[in-house]
Design goal:
This protein is α+β, with helices and mostly antiparallel strands and 177 residues long. It has one domain: Nuclear Transport Factor 2, Chain: A (Roll), CATH 3.10.450. Helices cover 23% and strands 41% of the residues. The strands form 3 sheets. It has a 6-stranded mixed beta sheet with strand order 6-5-10-9-8-7. Strand 9 and strand 10 form a beta hairpin.
């Protein structure tokens, strides 16, 4: 077996949530169970911001203001996208914004608003199933949408925020439901 310990976790298909390294499969399983934290006592617990605790089911309680504001900002970005309110949406994204999906590799803000933003007309309905803050700067969004051409799909987005702006979006396509 190859020693890949020198390779960063992200390059090995892992993401850091709090201080927990998770694979894409673990994140999908975690979200499918509707939990904000794995409900297994053997999992390490992430570092928490002041005033944040974990209840017995693994859910976060008493989220601090920054986490709540980030989740609200992300929800607003989804609403503005569906409404095609470009001006309001544009103000939520940092100038150094980066967007990555299976179809786009680290495109900048201008390319995102040129290529991706106008695609809302393809969506007849969209539901945010889970908006889950992982820490002060990361929010996971699990959503479902119906296409005007037919079919329902689900995706997960890992959205990084800093200084009240969306800095990075990574989309993981989930396929048809």
């Amino acid at each position: 077996m190859l020693d890949r310990s020198h390779v960063p976790l992200e390059a090995r298909g892992h993401w850091i949530v709090g201080c927990i390294p998770l694979t894409r499969v673990a994140i999908n399983s975690w979200i499918r169970r509707g939990r904000t934290m794995p409900n297994d006592p053997s999992w390490p617990r992430p570092r928490l911001d002041a005033g944040v605790t974990i209840d017995q089911t693994g859910a976060l309680e008493g989220r601090n203001r920054m986490v709540d504001n980030n989740a609200s900002l992300v929800e607003a970005a989804f609403r503005y996208y569906l409404a095609q309110d470009r001006e309001s949406t544009f103000a939520l994204y940092a100038d150094d914004f980066s967007f990555t999906s299976p179809q786009d590799d680290h495109i900048d803000k201008a390319a995102f608003f040129e290529r991706c933003f106008p695609t809302a007309s393809r969506v007849s309905d969209q539901r945010l199933l889970h908006v889950t803050p992982a820490d002060k700067g990361l929010v996971f969004v699990y959503y479902e949408y119906d296409l005007t051409s037919g079919g329902t799909h689900r995706n997960v987005e890992a959205i990084t925020l800093r200084d009240g702006l969306i800095r990075d979006v990574q989309v993981f396509f989930g396929g048809k439901v």
